[in-house]
Amino acid sequence: MNCPFCSHYESKVVDSRPTDEGQSIRRRRECISCTKRFTTYEKIEEIPLIIIKKSGNREPFNRNKILNGILKSCEKRPVALKDIENIVNEIEKQLYNSMEKEIKTELIGELIMDHIKKLDEVAYVRFASVYREFKDINTFMGELRKLLKEKTDV
Q1: For the chain: N or C, fewer Cβ within 10 A?
Q2: What pLDDT digit, counting tens, does each position of 11-22 carry?
Q3: For residue 154, what pLDDT is reported?
Q4: Is residue 6 part of a domain?
Q5: pLDDT digits (tens, 9 = 90+) for 24-83
Q6: Given strand 24-31, what is the order of strands in its sheet?
Q7: What CA–CA distance (Å, rounded) separates 105 from 24?
Q8: Do residues 29 and 78 both lie within one domain?
Q9: Of the candidates 84, 1, 116, 101, which has an alpha carbon nearest to the alpha carbon of residue 48?
Q10: 70 CB contacts (<8 Å, ≥6 apart)?
Q11: Is-above-0.70 flag for pTM?
């Protein structure tokens, strides 16, 4: 780390403390050459996720879109907001842990459906009807039959 005053390349850390709820570290440094002090911040570098939409367009990952989609499907259902936030956190963690830089919306949709199915069946059917773009009642009934079959198998 070069000193901002004399540009010397060596400094020593005098004090360190966490900031931003543990998301970064504030370091107070002292230059070995001129003995002046300065502050640096250390933060984890996150890999930006790019989402590939069905149309082929690309856009930055936005966790609020997942949150809003799940909230909409859980509307007027006995589902706690904390449970929804846990699902969004889990999906976001899975996406970042995949180490992929570009992720298709299909994968995100399937992850959401897997989590919602365990949370609330009505919310699952609501989400699936929008995500899978049900065209008619037969497609809708097909999804319901699959859900019922899975439930009886368990």
Answers
A1: C
A2: 999 999 988 777
A3: 65
A4: no
A5: 899 999 999 999 999 999 987 777 899 999 899 999 999 999 999 999 999 999 999 999
A6: 11-19, 24-31, 37-43
A7: 30
A8: no
A9: 101
A10: 84, 87, 88, 112, 116, 123, 127
A11: no
148 backbone dihedrals φ, ψ, rounded to 5°: -65, -40
pLDDT of residue 126: 87
- pLDDT tens-place string over residues 77-92: 999 999 999 999 999 9
| Residues making up the chain, counted from first to last | 154
Residues 80 and 123 in one domain: yes
**Res. 98 pLDDT band, cuts 50 70 90:** confident
Identity of the residue numbered 132:
R
Identity of residue 28: R
Structural domain boundaries enclosing 140:
50-153
Which tokens hold the place of 39?
A: 């502050």
Beta pairing, strands 24-31 & 37-43: antiparallel
Tokens of 5: 């005053």
Residues 142 and 126 in one domain: yes
- End-to-end Cα distance, the chain: 59
Q: Is 31 exposed, middle or buried (0-12, 13-18, 19+ CB in 10 A)?
A: buried
Helix (H, G, I), strand (E, B) or coil at 154: coil
Same domain, 138 and 65: yes
Report the distance separating Cα 145 and Cα 12, nearest Å.
66
